[in-house]
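Practice problem: predict the structure.
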Amino acid sequence: MYTHILVPTDGSALSDKAVEAAIKLAKLAGARITAFHAVEPYPLQGAYAAEASGVAELQPEIFAERSEEYAKRVLAAVADAAAKANVQCTTDYATARSPSQAIIEKAGAENCDLIVMASHGRRGLEGFLLGSETQKVLTHTSIPVLVYR
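Answer:
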């Protein structure tokens, strides 16, 4: 069965449900989990738009600080839930322009044998235009992926 499960989370309600399912699966399998959050880098487009419009922008340092605080808060919630279920859990985050690539790289670096993640279920034109991080993970990794919807 599985021994090490990567659980990417963005802190959304659906992601929280995937985390809960991953913890239950890990407990049943006697596996450990690594919770992971991909932090978006400072949006340069936003800086240019703010400058052009004369609106005050969020400074890169403040943006990074708030992003890191959010990541730590989201991951702490996963670690707490895992601890309550008596499941071994480590946490990590990384800044990445491509969350899907960061997820794949983390799963490989940690020798995970399963990725459990949520899918927000965007379909049609919205899914095509926005892309799906889950879909990108599914198509670019050889590690099994359990999708929670």
